[in-house]
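[recover] target loaded
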């Protein structure tokens, strides 16, 4: 059994552990709150990084798609410029042919221009109020132009081809200009996506440093939390051991007290028996001792009869043979009730 000094020492140690445990729990609560704070900040940065990486991937896909489109448009523009060059070469040859014919037949004007001038003069006669003299002058001019037109009919085919080719060249140039404008616009958008990727990559590099800083603080606090929590568990384990020691000592004290009380009661019973034999006067205390003794004897006899009664009513047919167990013996039955269930097989 523990001495009084040992018991007091245990209670003092338990009080110290209680105070230290309270301090540790408060520290753990604060550290845990701070730890979670930095973890949330780190997770927020991590989410931001993931979002930026996702945006970079999309921007890269769009940039590559635009770059392919630019290449396709450049190829189309090159084909248009090649067609323009070919048609210009044909016009050069036709202009050379036209000059030779003009020189040969002394043709100074384009037949198309001559027709326009004739149509314009005819319209003026029909729609304008001109004098007779003026009308004669216009008619004379028309006849001269018609003569020139007739002389130029030999080369009118050349002029027609040149005009048609010039029109085709103008149309091709317009298409090439349109494609060039598209190339510029798409290339600009592709460059914008590329610059966005560079900007986001720089942002990620910057905030990654913050992510590492926040994680480092979280990890340091986590380690401190684990250390303090381990210390707390050790103190709690030590306290449990001390409480178990106190409980064991308390049980031992109770048993010793019971033994001493039984011994004292037996001695007093002996004294009372002697007084009864010698017919001496019994005190109130003697009567109480005698009453306790009688009560205990009756309880013992009653318990003995109950056991004998149980044995008399046990039928041999009710006693079952022990069943073979399929596994290790267990204090409880298969249904957890502490009783063996009947085998129905």
């Amino acid at each position: 059994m523990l001495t009084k000094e040992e018991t007091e020492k245990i209670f003092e140690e338990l009080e110290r552990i209680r105070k230290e445990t309270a301090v540790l729990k408060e520290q753990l609560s604060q550290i845990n709150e701070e730890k979670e704070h930095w973890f949330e900040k780190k997770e927020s940065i991590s989410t931001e990084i993931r979002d930026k990486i996702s945006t970079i991937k999309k921007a890269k896909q769009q940039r590559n798609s635009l770059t392919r489109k630019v290449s396709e448009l450049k190829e189309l523009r090159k084909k248009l410029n090649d067609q323009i060059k070919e048609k210009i070469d044909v016009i050069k040859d036709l202009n050379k042919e036209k000059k030779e014919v003009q020189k040969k037949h002394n043709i100074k004007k384009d037949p198309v221009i001559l027709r326009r001038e004739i149509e314009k003069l005819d319209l003026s006669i029909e729609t304008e109020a001109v004098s007779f003299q003026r009308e004669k002058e216009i008619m004379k001019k028309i006849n001269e132009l018609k003569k020139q037109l007739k002389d130029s009919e030999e080369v009118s085919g050349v002029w027609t081809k040149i005009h048609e080719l010039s029109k085709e060249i103008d149309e091709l140039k317009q298409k090439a200009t349109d494609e060039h404008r598209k190339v510029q616009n798409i290339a600009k958008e592709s460059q914008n996506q590329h610059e966005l990727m560079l900007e986001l990559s720089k942002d990620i590099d910057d905030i990654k440093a913050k992510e590492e800083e926040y994680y480092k603080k979280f990890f340091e606090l986590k380690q401190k939390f684990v250390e303090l929590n381990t210390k707390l568990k050790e103190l709690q384990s030590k306290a449990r051991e001390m409480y178990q020691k106190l409980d064991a000592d308390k049980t031992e004290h109770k048993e010793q007290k019971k033994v001493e009380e039984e011994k004292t009661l037996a001695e007093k019973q002996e004294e009372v028996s002697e007084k009864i034999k010698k017919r001496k006067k019994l005190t109130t205390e003697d009567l109480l001792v005698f009453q306790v003794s009688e009560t205990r004897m009756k309880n013992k006899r009653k318990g003995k009869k109950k056991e004998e009664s149980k044995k008399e009513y046990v039928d041999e047919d009710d006693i079952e043979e022990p069943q073979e167990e399929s596994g290790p013996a267990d204090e409880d039955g298969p249904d957890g009730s502490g009783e063996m269930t009947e085998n129905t097989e």
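[recover] notes: The chain has two domains: 4-236, 249-312.
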